[in-house]
Design goal:
Elements: H1 5-21, H2 25-32, H3 36-49, H4 53-57, H5 61-68, H6 82-99
């Protein structure tokens, strides 16, 4: 789902303020009216994508979003086997009921 247009505007504003004010996290956060942690997250994403204020100004909202928020790929994390989990839980309930 695409992010709201206001978020892309805010990211552009963060990058513009960062270019104007320099590396003053508190001043940029106050100017953009966001928390410092959100500011850092935006700056980390922009740095990883190689985007600065000038590049952000030349990109559409969709292109900026695609560069800063690439699609999440499957990290190879195994999916739990729900059938087996249910069986083990049921067996545990029966075992504890027979002990009492």
């Amino acid at each position: 789902m695409p992010r709201p247009r206001s978020e892309m505007r805010r990211i552009r504003e963060v990058l513009r303020l960062w270019a104007e004010l320099g590396p003053n996290v508190s001043a940029v956060a106050i100017g953009a009216q966001i928390s410092r942690s959100t500011l850092r997250r935006y700056l980390e994403r922009a740095q990883a994508a190689g985007i600065d204020a000038a590049k952000a100004a030349g990109l559409s909202d969709e292109a900026l979003e695609a560069a800063l928020f690439p699609p999440v790929t499957d990290g190879g994390r195994p999916v739990p086997d729900q059938d087996r989990r249910g069986t083990a839980a049921a067996q545990a309930r029966h075992a504890s009921a027979s002990v009492a």
